[in-house]
Amino acid sequence: VQAENRDFSTSGYETIVADTNIENELHIGFNSTTLLGLLATHTTERVRFALADPSRAGVMTDVDGDENLLTLAMPMMLND
User: Fold this and answer.
1) How far is Cα 17 from Cα 22, in angstroms, rounded to an integer?
2) Gap between the Cα atoms of 47 and 41, Å rounded
3) Does residue 51 sit in helix, strand or coil?
4) Phi-psi region at 71: left, alpha or beta (left = phi > 0; alpha = psi -120 to 50)
5) Considering only CA atoms, which of 55, 45, 49, 60 is closest in space to residue 75?
6) Residue 67 exposure: Cα atoms within 13 Å on the Cβ side
7) Do 39 and 30 form a contact (C-beta atoms < 8 A)?
8) Model pTM score
């Protein structure tokens, strides 16, 4: 996971454990404030984040909580 704020010339990089079934690298950008707001609505500490490709929304669901709770995170354009 990588974060960057070009306005303040700051960035961060973190490695997380994830179960994936993708063969190639996947580069998708999300607004961090929006993402944190969506995560705050979930009722468990573990959330499943399903990603298909950079042009489609990411789908978040609770792993052990409310099975009916679903949130969508719309991606942003990246300047790679």
Assistant:
1) 14
2) 11
3) coil
4) beta
5) 55
6) 0
7) no
8) 0.71
Gap between the Cα atoms of 35 and 71, Å rounded: 10
Instruction: Tell me which amino acid residue 17 is.
Output: V
Angle at 37 between CA 80 and CA 73, to 5 degrees: 45
Question: Which two tokens mark 10?
Answer: 């700051």
Gap between the Cα atoms of 62 and 65, Å rounded: 5
Nearby residues of 64 by Cβ (< 8 Å), 6 or more positions away: 44, 46
pLDDT at 80: 64
CB of 11 within 8 A of CB of 2? yes
φ, ψ of residue 48 in degrees (nearest 5): -90, 125
- Show pLDDT as tens, one digit a residue, over the chain (80 residues): 777 777 788 888 888 777 777 777 778 888 888 888 998 999 888 888 888 888 899 999 998 888 889 999 999 877 76
Longest Cα separation, the chain: 39
